[in-house]
Amino acid sequence: MTPKVDAPDAVSQVPSPPTERVIAVMQLLAAEPDRSFSLADITRRLDISRATGHAIMTTLVVHQWALRDDESAGYSCGPAFAAMGRPANSRALRPILSELAESIGTQVLLVRRDGASLEIVDTAGESLTAPRIGSGFRIPLVAPFGRDYVAWASKSSQQAWLGAGQPATQLQKRLTAVLQEVTRRGYVIERLSPEYVRVYTALRALAVDGEPDAITRRLAWSFADLTIVDYLPGELDTAEPHQIATIAAPIRDADGLVTMSVTAAPFAALSAATVNDLGAKVSDAARRIEQHLRGARA
Question: How many CB atoms lie within 10 A of CB 89?
Fold first, then answer.
């Protein structure tokens, strides 16, 4: 007689109470994604001790599965947890990326947030003036990078992003103004400069080791100190061409949280009109991807 493992046998295995508590917390937060739960709410509704609840929430916040509002001390679903709801096969979005790449003649990247990193998950097209960027490349979500993710985030998240590297006051003011302009404009513009090329090359080498570390974050802040980040109103309105590395637009989930982005990488000198045209096309592709993702989950 051949023994078999059926459902009753699997269910009868000893469960893991700590794991079940974490799952219960995330189910509670996900059930009302627009609500901010206090620690007292969480511990009372799930019948766990305050010490246990605090330990769970602290760990979830560290890994971006939950967000903590500094003003209310409330907790809500974080971007890393929300990103897990994306389609398992990001290549399902390839037709949109390919169409965009063909229309603008540059390489196009699909990027997603993974905790404290931004990872390229798919690409389409080629940029003749730029080094090819492949899937798996990561950069840290630390200022000045990731503006397309932070610009629409809460004030507390923006402050955490701004303060992570302890930048100079002048740089903080610049980045704060840039975030406001990005939300108005709808997309991020990365200037192409010798500093950008060097930092990009270094980040590409460091990405081989996996998750961004303290050295990678310091490198990002050094870049911000050495160059002018993005464009503020009026800075793009000049007759001479602008050296542009990338243009990126956010992709939001059904709750309005930015979990992915689409990026065009011209790495070329462009007129202001061309920059604006590229920004509009990249933003349109991002909206189409949003519609596709929401339709797939309906």
Answer: 10
- C-alpha pair distances (Å), 47 with each of 40, 44, 52, 146: 10, 5, 10, 38
Q: pTM here? A: 0.67
CA pseudo-torsion sign 196, 146, 158, 186: positive
pLDDT digits (tens, 9 = 90+) for 82-129: 656 544 455 678 899 999 999 999 999 999 988 777 889 899 998 877
Within-domain flag for 1: no
What span, in angstroms and rounded, lies between the C-alpha atoms of 209 and 138?
A: 10
Q: Are residues 154 and 66 in the same domain?
A: no
Amino acid at 95: P
One domain, residues 55 and 172: no
Which of these three, 37, 61, 77, is where a domain ends?
77
Rounded CA-CA distance 60/67 in Å is 8
**117 inside domain:** yes
Q: Which three-class secondary structure state does DSSP give residue 113?
A: strand
